[in-house]
Amino acid sequence: MLHFAILFCLLVASANASVQDFCVADLKAPQGPAGYSCKSPTKVTAKDFVFSGLVGAGNTSNIIKAAVTPAFDAQFPGVNGLGLSMARLDLAPKGVVPMHTHPGASEILVVTQGSITAGFISSSDNKVYTATLKKGEVMVFPQGLLHFQINAAGVTSVALVTFSSPNPGLQILDFALFANDLPTDLVSKTTFLDPALIKTLKGVLGGTN
After folding, report:
1. pLDDT in tens, 59-90
2. Where in the sequence is the domain holding 184, given as residue range(s)?
3. Do 115 and 195 belong together in one domain?
4. Tell me: the pLDDT tens digits for 153-164?
């Protein structure tokens, strides 16, 4: 009899449970550790689930000759809470996305134009995994690992990237080391690089000290 009572309670609880199909980001509300708050369902429209920002090419006229156009929760409210997002990668000839990590997500990259050399470094033994990808080929980058992408063609290369989080996060190693006010002496001691080289890189990337 006890078993039937427990089963009945579970069925009732399940029937009364609130099922939320989606949580469109309320961009006007503060963002917390769990992401954005949900927009009221009465204010959600089909436009919240459509994003056109990946149609056009990004601006690659910068020091790395690359552009990453995100479709994260801040740009694409419909992905909030769904555990995924996208981005577009444009790499001009000689373009590169330097060593970087996404602390909050794994990444899948599919080349849609040109050719891209990409790779990542394992955290256990620093083994390097690289491949040159042609149009239609795909590579996965595990969460949190250092990885890079380089244009391997003589023309602009393009890729679409999917992440396993609506906000994967980003830290580019070169900018983390040389685009801040961390004293050159400390950078030298922690990287074993020559201070003169560090100052040169700080000058190029906008760092000080």
Report:
1. 999 999 999 999 999 999 999 999 999 999 99
2. 179-205
3. no
4. 989 999 999 999
Task: Name residue 116's amino acid.
Answer: I
Q: Is 137 annotated as a binding residue?
A: no
> DSSP letter at 17?
P
Amino acid at 42: T
What type of residue sits at position 7?
L
Instruction: Name the pTM for this structure.
Output: 0.84
Residues 67 and 153 in one domain: yes
Residue 102, annotated as binding a ligand: yes
Same domain, 165 and 130: yes
Ligand-binding annotation for 3, yes or no, is no
Q: Decide: 92 and 60 in contact? Cβ < 8 Å.
A: yes
CB 124 within 8 Å of CB 47: no
| SS3 track for 60-116 | CCCCCCEEEEEECCCCCHHHCCCCCEEEEEEECCCCEEEEEECCCCCEEEEEEECEE
Q: Is 104 inside any structural domain? A: yes
- Angle at 192 (CA atoms; ends 190, 193), nearest 5 degrees: 110
pLDDT tens readout for residues 172-189: 988 888 998 989 999 898
